[in-house]
Amino acid sequence: MEAQIKKAAVSLFLVVVGSWLMIYCRQQREVVFSLFEPTLKTADRLSAFPEAQNRIGFHQWFQNQPEAALTLYQKALAGNFLLVDAWLKMGEIEAAKGNKERARDILVFTDRLAPGVQRWKWQQALLALDLDLRDLFIRAINDLIPQILHRENALFVIDQEYESVADAVGTALSSDNLPHYLSWLMQGQRVDDARVVWKKMTHAQKSEKDMHERYVHFLLSHRRIAEAKTVWGKTGLTNPGFEEEITHRGFDWRWHNPKDDSWMVKRIFLPDPKRMHAVQVSFSGRENIDFYHLSQVFPVKPGESYTIMFEWRSQGLTTDQRPFAEVYGYECKGLYAKGSMAQENSEWHSEELPFTVPEGCEAAVVRLRRLKSSRIDSKIEGKIWLDNFR
Asked: Where are the domains of the chain?
């Protein structure tokens, strides 16, 4: 008899536990897959699940029910005090209620609870800004800037916080984030602010090839020619033999190709140990082209005389107006030199282009040019190759 009672008791216990597990598993599935309605009634039903309390609290907050949200967040944290989302929302609610000290304590606690976790940095930064916790705000922003997803917004917020004073922003930012800030300022065309940040950067950061070239290009595009020359730190033509990839910016070669095939400029490989690469310009014979789309800006010294030398060859060039090389002043007057016109067909040979730089001229442009023809057979066809500028 006693054995039967024990067996019955065990069976009853298993039935109760099984029923409870069925209910729990069903509710857990609702929570995991967000299958529940975010209502207060649901919160009571799912009281055993901190994550459900947290999500329903979030919904109540957006329904402008801060007290209900606060209660739910407290229940969530009672079940799992590691829910940083709930802590931060509690901080926001306390701040909105005017309980600044309570909000600050919560924010500082979350910063200590998850110091290296990026997920909550944006919320922490904005709340720190609202609570005048400047050190925590700066630390969070510096953590956010390396992340592409948050970089633009983070830079905008800190720039606004310091009233767009680049020197102050640059001081607040970590050294590693200065290149990101400089790129952001260049994107916004803020020339003087970009100059301030450039001076704050380390030598290694300034020497990084892409950043160096982009900054020089930025200065040139805003006619800060003397400063661009100083930053560039080199004289003469860049990539004269076209052995490196063309960047199309700064003191490097630039060219433009049309959507149609009226002409085509490209860097090519040559099976010649004397000239591994060259630039080829092809004309299709479809248009009477005014061509000026291959050029390079290069630094010069006022009052100095120069001679540009280069090699070129041609094949099948037509019309009375064929390409020629020219030099003119970049953002200055009084400098112009023009070379001879290319032959219809020729093997590799040298060409010279002498010129003298007038006072006040800091840079010049060497360019391949072709003028429109006034004849009936005006549509130019053929190819020309250029190499070994010096």
From this structure: 253-387
Residue 314: other Cβ atoms inside 10 A: 21
253-387 is classed in which CATH architecture?
Answer: Sandwich (2.60)
For residue range 159-171, list pLDDT tens digits in order: 999 999 999 999 9
For residues 55 and 38, is the Cβ–Cβ distance under 8 A? Answer: yes
Tokens of 220: 């040139």
**Adjacency order of strands within the sheet including 305-315:** 263-269, 277-284, 381-387, 305-315, 346-356
Are the CB atoms for 83 and 53 separated by under 8 Å? Answer: no
Q: In the sheet that 291-299 helps form, which strands lie side by side, from edge to edge?
A: 253-255, 291-299, 363-370, 324-329, 336-341
- Bridge partners, residue 280, by sequence: 266, 385
CB 324 within 8 A of CB 342: yes
Overall size of the chain counted in residues = 390
How far, in Å, CA of 215 to CA of 218, rounded? 5
Distance in angstroms (rounded) separating the CA atoms of residues 364 and 362: 7
Residue 323 token pair: 């390409």
Indicate the residue type of 277.
H
Q: How much of the chain is in helix, strand and coil states, percent to nearest 5?
A: 45, 20, 35
Tell me the CA distances in angstroms from 310 to 80, 114, 242, 293, one per residue in order. Answer: 74, 62, 12, 18
In tens, the pLDDT along 37-66 reads 777 776 667 666 777 767 877 777 767 887
**Cβ(356)–Cβ(304) below 8 Å:** yes
- Residue 114, SS3 per DSSP: coil
**For the segment 180-220, what is each residue's pLDDT rounded down to a tens digit?**
999 999 999 999 999 999 999 999 999 998 999 999 999 99
Residues 6 or more apart whose Cβ sits within 8 Å of residue 1:
none
| CA–CA separation, 379 and 356 (whole Å) | 34
